[in-house]
């Protein structure tokens, strides 16, 4: 079988094209495509990604012999087009050897330029070009790159110095110069001989002189680089499979280092930061390849506008700018015009923002690469909507041009970029809730409230948080914890509040007694300033300027567009009128989960709640509950009012009661005084409430079933609030939700309490409200018996946090201790508390939905776990046929976009 391993391109022809990325890699496919559409590209060829797999199966020698013939022919093709000969002395052809995977892996693998040079060829090149400086500059670059990449001279440790760089530095010091281009031709020559000596010393071999030996060395090195540590790590981070392999591109060299009419640069068809439709980029005169990104010399701007903006930021005067750093538009106007026309052509062709590389050789422009440019969330939205308006793409395409998760960036405060540059990172944790926060350290909720009341901005620092810290978290700018994962209490609550949070920063030693936190030798105390970056988990010392997010018109238009295609509704998880309002502004059409326990923590409420819990009999509980009722009713009124006209699912009391009682002596003493009993009595009750395994203990509907008076009170509060609002003309659609059932009888008995209470209330008030009673599906048994459950329950809401916990048997509070190992060992691909496990937990969701609807065809099904705001999980919910997803307010736009994409994907 004759498999095609090599694809040639050049002079307006190509065997490949843009849609062959899997086979030719992104770079190779686009080099071919550029040829086909008339963009000038140096001729060359691409060895396919399949050969990379063969390389790892068959070994080097076998693959080299398989390729031998094809590569010789392809080189001959370049020779003919370039009118030069590979390995020839008088008229040499030089090539570059470049890696290129399917997905771009910037800077991960290596490129070798100027291949084909040796001591004789360099002399021939001088005779051919009459430019000894250029020839020796190219040669010394080649020996260094080849030594580093192919001969393994590059140090593995980033901290260690590259032996070639060391030689250059030494020589520059000797000569008293700063920049490479200040070295003389003789110096460059000297560098080559020193480099080769270093190669001989370190590897024991002479530097290869035959062009073909060099070529095979370089091709194999590119294949080898697919498995280097950097590349492996990058693939792991980006989820790129090792089987994909890399292609190898061999391409005729064009030279940006031939003098003042030569240059090299990188450019973007739009601004990758802001999304502005502004051509921009950087270039360097008389330079090669990586010089622009390497930061050896200060690159100059391509456009005049860009150059002027740059000068302003760099405090460079207009005269100095023109003299030292003119834009390409000013310095090389005709080349600039050509470049500008071609970048437009490429953007129009690919219908997306392009990131391009080019080189100018003695006044002639060549393109070396183009790809769809990476961009910020802001730019993503702006570019998608601009392209749509320009008629370049259609609505559906525009919706897919934005990654839902990237919308997060648009919704939270951000750090001032300049300020962030000089900030020092003192610790790193998990990016638990995005955004930027800066403030003074406090360790306790009371302190947070106190400092906040005095007008301070605070960061709440805790080992971990619990519901008692809620009030503190609410007033803090951000939350930092030493323990806990992405679904720890701190993380979930912070995301719900749209507040920045870094969790699980293990390096922190927090001392509550002395109110200090220590990282290494650094000790910070209450009141010291720190800053948090919830988007990458970094903790900085001191204050860093932040700015509020502003929602752009483009963002709003994108959301409107999403709604046009969506089938899945997006609701929010909200426990306060303020959160409900935020979510409504982001487009939520209801509340999918209103937790009632958070309402109990403020001031008098917690006292009445504790009194209820600590009561010994029903009578005592009823008395205490009657104190809670008006508070709870008022809370519901606030939320219902904010959600006028929308459904609100209220979950009955869920957490274990011991979370509400005082565990410290002072709290217990206060409690005893208030209730008129002994401290000992209180302590005994607290003790009796403690459980071995509270997550599986006395919580959820088990509370309501053992203390029906709680359910009664909550029903009165919910429906009482709705009735009062009805009188004001506000429409409320309460959905009362029983948590944590596993057995239909658990549900039925609660339902009976709710309905009886409602009847009594309606009779008493002479008015009524329509409401439904449904359940959470969060215990596997409930999912397994969903048909039975649906015979009574009017709706299902999948509580996938608990459902994941109970399906995997992973405690969500303790997963942090083994999750990293599981991810590392590939036992798990992702954290199942963040991304819904479609295979296992998802099967329960699908099955329960189907079983439920087999009994009750119009059964309303939704999801209210953390997964409701995670794009791949949202798409799954669409496919399963759920009616809605519910997520924290700041994830509502993300879910809306993901839902639209899911509907379009079908
Ligand atoms: P990366 O993927 O790291 O960008 P590239 O293969 O694109 O690596 O090459 C690195 C640099 O060398 C780029 O600036 C590119 O434009 C330049 N380069 C690559 N091949 C050639 C060539 N044949 N002629 C001139 N410059 C080249
Ligand atoms: Mg490149
Ligand atoms: Mg639950």
TrEMBL record:
Q: Which GO terms describe its molecular function?
A: ATP binding; kinase activity; metal ion binding; pyruvate, phosphate dikinase activity
Cofactors demanded by this protein: Mg(2+)
The reaction(s) annotated as catalysed by this protein in its Swiss-Prot or TrEMBL entry are: pyruvate + phosphate + ATP = phosphoenolpyruvate + AMP + diphosphate + H(+)
The answer to whether UniProt assigns keyword Nucleotide-binding to this entry is yes
List each copy of the PEP-utilising enzyme C-terminal domain by range.
Answer: 552-902
Enzyme Commission numbers on file:
2.7.9.1
- In what residue span(s) does the Pyruvate phosphate dikinase AMP/ATP-binding domain sit? 22-390
**What domain of life does the UniProt record list for this protein's source?**
Bacteria
Q: What is this protein called?
A: Pyruvate, phosphate dikinase
| Species, as recorded | Parabacteroides chartae
Q: What is the lineage of its organism?
A: Bacteria, Pseudomonadati, Bacteroidota, Bacteroidia, Bacteroidales
